[in-house]
Automatic annotation (TrEMBL):
One of its GO terms (molecular function) is phosphoglycerate mutase activity. One of its GO terms (biological process) is glycolytic process. The record marks 142 as: Transition state stabilizer. This is phosphoglycerate mutase (2,3-diphosphoglycerate-dependent). It comes from Dipteronia sinensis. The lineage of its organism: Eukaryota, Viridiplantae, Streptophyta, Embryophyta, Tracheophyta.
Length: 171
């Protein structure tokens, strides 16, 4: 089933532009043609202004909530390096271990376990309660944060989750 046929009342995304743009692009294909509006933690004056939206505007828009907890895993000293450079600098086996283990972080970076702690905590508190209220949510995030949430939802072990492959979304 394509995104255009799935009801969406609210979108959660990471604070990284790539995830936000993916959500925006996906919504351009949606049959309801609602306008995604990114919400921010703002001043009281800005909150007051946002309450002034007409009911018609609210019906035509979908709130997009950015959360740093849904950001991609931080690769520390590996951040920004391509796979070949990283393998040359640290060795192929060590790089593979950092990328594919659950609890071993790269130098000054996060392990999948560390990423999972923040992503799943945010999911439980902010996202998981919504479907019970009848809201349809979309989460636009990254491989490691999404893998962590899938681990929680599907009750996967740390060994099972490292083999989960996620394809890039297609609207």
């Amino acid at each position: 089933m394509r995104i255009c046929n799935i009801p969406v009342d609210m979108i959660y995304t990471s604070t990284l532009i790539r995830a936000q743009m993916t959500a925006m692009l996906a919504m351009t294909q949606h049959r309801h043609k609602k306008i995604p509006i990114i919400t921010h933690n703002e001043s009281e004056q800005a909150k007051t202004w946002s309450r002034i939206y007409s009911e018609e505007t609210k019906k035509q828009s979908i709130p997009v909530v950015p959360a740093w907890q849904l950001n991609e895993r931080m690769y520390g000293e590996l951040q920004g390096l391509n796979k070949e450079e990283t393998a040359e600098r640290y060795g192929k086996e060590l790089v593979h271990e950092w990328r594919r283990s659950y609890d071993i972080p790269p130098p000054n970076g996060e392990s999948l376990e560390m990423c999972s702690q923040r992503a799943v905590a945010y999911f439980k508190e902010h996202i998981e309660p919504h479907p019970q209220s009848g809201k349809h949510l979309m989460v636009s995030a990254h491989g490691s944060s999404l893998r962590s949430i899938i681990m929680y939802l599907d009750k996967l072990t740390s060994q099972e989750v490292i083999n989960v492959e996620l394809s890039t979304g297609i609207p």
